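Hey, can you fold this one?
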Amino acid sequence: MGEITILGAGLAGLCTAWFLRREGADVRVLERAAGAGLGTSFANGGMLTPSQANPWNAPGVLQYALSTLGKADSPMLVRPTALPGMMRWGTRFALESKAARYEANARRNLALGLYSLEQHRALVAEAGIDYARSALGTLQIFRDEQSLDAARAIAGMLAPHGLRFTVLDEAALLALEPALAEADTRPIAGIHFPDDESGDAHLFCRNLANRLAAMGVVFEYGVEIEQLETKAGRVSALIGPGGRRPVETLVVAAAAQSLRLLGPLGLRLPIYPVKGYSLSGEMAPLRTRPRLPIVDMHRKIALTPLGSRLRIAGSAEFNGFDTVLNTARTSMIRRDAEALLPALRALPEGALKPWTGLRAVTPTGYPVLGATAINGLFTNTGHGPLGWTFAAGTGRLVAEAVLHGHPAGRDLSTPLPARAA
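Sure. Predicted structure:
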């Protein structure tokens, strides 16, 4: 096999490059940004969470999503202008919210998440890269018994399949995370997931790219690809402002941009771009700092310590490919975080840097992996909110599909056609 080209130097693309190069493959990574991890991977929630394997579309989600229309302060926001473009995807999203399908998808996602965490730990141990890693787990918090019971039921359903968790009353919760004692409204309980991890995804990408370059992987940044060319049923070239680049084997790991590249080839990926937001800043000025990642299940925000920095992430905005940073959304996230950690109110304006990016979300929560109907063309995309959680596992699975025509490791029933069934 000749050189393998990967489109995308984010978490998925870099992990694919790692597992390909470890097998001796010649790899070239093309990225339109100026460096690695500057797209969707740049300022995400910073967590690896098999605990969040359950998809977004729990039973009743359609009614909830429609109820957010026109409500600018809702954690999930569906812009009316986005509705015409999401009907096909939205129909599948609604169908997958039926209880039996939802539970099956959650179990499948958990299997991939746990497998991926194993691969991530092995990769980190071998590559020896630093990224402000923490292995203290994550903490979900609740303000009412109803939401606690719902989360406990999901965790209980997944427990026989490998999910470990501990339900904490208020006293145990505050003992584990004393910073919550200052919350405007104290949570009544929490669930601790000890196997989850966290860290700085951008730092991970940057250091992994450096390691890969030292191993002989070729990186080209600032490369815009506008079109894929095929010949006789096989991928043959990349077309962009820089001209035509012949390719023999191609892995598209371009998150939501995969739609733009693969759609014209007749590959209808079940992906919709969902915009998320984050705020990041130094924790030094804070009198109170969280020890481990906190996920507020009511307002759908996460506070993640990243070494000396804090990441606040949240919001799911359905608005097509719009990437404009809406300050009303970041202000909402900051207010929610301040209610949880009042010490944040002492930070001056501008101390928290805003960011927004598009998650490539599938109706099942499972990514689109492996070979397509076009020879030589593979996908590693559609990771949704679990981009880092799934990255190492999908990187190995896709690398094995490219090199050997089958996924690695345990039987995950991984779909190799370009679909996420």
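Residues 58-98+132-196+272-361 form a domain with the D-Amino Acid Oxidase; Chain A, domain 2 fold (CATH 3.30.9.10). Let me know if you want another pass with a different chain boundary.
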